[in-house]
Amino acid sequence: MKRIISTLLCLGAALALTGCGGGKGEVSGTVKYLGKPLPEGTITFYDGGRGAWSSPIKEGAYTVTGVSAGATKIAVQTPIPIAFGSGPVPKTTSIPAKYNDPEKSGLTYQVQAGSQTHDVNLD
Questions:
Q1: Is 74 within the bounds of a domain?
Q2: Distance (Å, rounded) from C-alpha 57 to C-alpha 38?
Q3: Which of 16, 28, 29, 92 has the fewest CB atoms in 10 Å of its CB?
Q4: Residue 56 near residue 95 (C-beta atoms within 8 A)
Q5: Structural domain span for residue 33
Q6: Per DSSP, what are the bridge partners of residue 52?
Q7: Residue 12 lies in a domain
Q8: What is the pTM of this model?
Q9: How far is CA 27 from CA 43, 79, 111, 115, 122, in A?
Q10: Spatial contact of 40 and 30, defined as CB atoms under 8 Å apart
Q11: How far apart are CA 63 and CA 72, in angstroms?
């Protein structure tokens, strides 16, 4: 009986330390808009209200760490061009507004535990 209780306590502790979601993933890849790497922006993975993980996009490349394994929805944002003082408005790449909202973007990914690659193509 002591052995069963000890085993159950160890299993409970292991679940508490790792969570029930199946681990964490690191997702890297390239974000392209109209076939070209997105110069800059932010990519965010959402896992249904439990969490969100973001990464900057630099010359198309991104790496998001610590994402809960499982189904995610993805949003991509680009900087808003704002002029400071009398200077020129910075040039940025505009993407369709739907990509700002994970519920409307149509971008999804099934994150696995460990490292993986997922390229995102925006049209």
A1: yes
A2: 7
A3: 16
A4: no
A5: 21-80+89-122
A6: 46
A7: no
A8: 0.77
A9: 11, 22, 8, 6, 17
A10: no
A11: 15
Token pair 């061009």 is found at 81
In the chain, the number of structural domains is 1
56 touches 44 (CB < 8 A):
no
pLDDT in tens, 64-115: 999 999 999 999 999 988 877 777 776 788 999 999 999 999 999 999 999 9
Show Cβ contacts of residue 12 under 8 Å, excluding neighbours closer than 6 positions: none
Tens of pLDDT, residues 32-47:
999 999 999 999 999 9
Q: What is the CA radius of gyration of the chain?
A: 19
User: Which amino acid is it at 49?
Assistant: G
Residue at 72 is within a domain: yes
| CATH assignment at residue 64 | 2.60.40.1120
